[in-house]
Amino acid sequence: AQKVTQAQTEISVVEKEDVTLDCVYETRDTTYYLFWYKQPPSGELVFLIRRNSFDEQNEISGRYSWNFQKSTSSFNFTITASQVVDSAVYFCALSETGAGSYQLTFGKGTKLSVIP
Amino acid sequence: EAEVAQSPRYKITEKSQAVAFWCDPISGHATLYWYRQILGQGPELLVQFQDESVVDDSQLPKDRFSAERLKGVDSTLKIQPAELGDSAMYLCASSLVGRGKPNTGELFFGEGSRLTVL
Questions:
Q1: What is the DSSP letter of B29?
Q2: Residue A113: phi, psi to the nearest 5?
Q3: Nearest chain B Cα to A109, which residue?
Q4: Exposure on the CB side of residue A116, measured as CA atoms within 13 A
Q5: How far is C-alpha A32 from the chain's CA centre?
Q6: Which residue in A has a C-alpha nearest to residue B34's C-alpha?
Q7: Dihedral sign, CA of B13, B15, B17, B21?
Q8: What pLDDT shows up at residue A101?
Q9: CB-based contact A35 B112, cutoff 8 Å
Q10: Which of B44, B17, B35 is CA-nearest to residue B110?
Q11: CA distance B7 to B114
Q12: What are the residues facing B37 on neighbouring strands?
């Protein structure tokens, strides 16, 4: 069975600090997708990134970057120069492609508070 | 930009009452999911539809929960009777899976329906 672990329940940083959110996953599939979603106080889940299991290239998008390492089953997310607007709950999720179901299994989330 | 629509945004009900949530996915999306998110937890899948058919409802508490997507478009999730432990955010999501189009595996989520059972 698939599982996603986000060991950090809550993180607080001062604005402009860098912060890394950890994600460790378990799956038996060789083909899978990994995701990060942001959930602001309004409640909607906002898609940030998708990675497939065959693409271990790290990705950078503005102040956001992701480090995917299959050897350690980790998909960590770094925010550089954090801003107050980054305050939210961040979820890592895993989607196995068996039977084409693409169901997402979420971690429990990391609540990030950026203090001005 | 196309969105997943959900209603109501907020619902307060007393235990043992019936409650229903509605979801209208992005046009053309074949797959529809209902997730439940308890406060402080990640969302958990309740039911998945492919068009009008249920693909997976193994986590749906069928003694009190029901879900339907009669015409393969919008969907309704019902709880009867509601219990205190049902207080949660109910999220609907949709994806292109099954329409013969390139699939990114991405789910698009609505804003959710927050249920409080008193």
A1: -
A2: -115, 125
A3: B42
A4: 2
A5: 15
A6: A103
A7: positive
A8: 61
A9: no
A10: B35
A11: 10
A12: B89
- Kindly report, residue by residue over B66-76, the tens digit of the pLDDT: 999 988 899 99
**Tokens, residue A72:** 């350690």
Contact B111 A52 (CB under 8 A): no
Question: Tokens 């350690």 — which residue?
Answer: A72
* Distance (Å, whole) CA A58 – CA A80: 15
Across chain A, mean pLDDT equals 91
Of A32-36, A95-99, A111-115, B29-33, the poorest mean pLDDT is in A95-99
Output phi, psi for A99, to 5 deg.
Answer: 65, 10
pLDDT digits (tens, 9 = 90+) for A29-81: 888 889 999 999 888 898 899 888 888 888 888 999 999 999 999 999 999 99
| Structure confidence at residue B98 (pLDDT) | 58
CA B109 from chain center: how many Å?
A: 10
B51-66 pLDDT per residue, tens: 999 989 999 999 999 9
User: Is residue A15 pLDDT above 80, yes or no?
Assistant: yes
Question: Which of chain A's residues have a Cβ under 8 Å away from the Cβ of B29?
Answer: none
Any residues with CB less than 8 A from the CB of B11 and at least 6 apart, and which? B19, B21, B113, B114, B115, B116
Which pLDDT value is given to residue A7? Answer: 95
Task: Tell me the shortest Cα–Cα distance from B106 to chain A, in angstroms.
Answer: 7
What does the alpha-carbon distance between residue B35 and residue B111 come to, in Å, rounded to a whole number? 12
Q: Say which DSSP state A104 is in.
A: E
CB B90, CB B78: distance < 8 Å: no
CA-based nearest residue in chain A for residue B113 = A43
Query: Residue A82 and residue B17: Cα distance in Å, rounded?
Result: 45
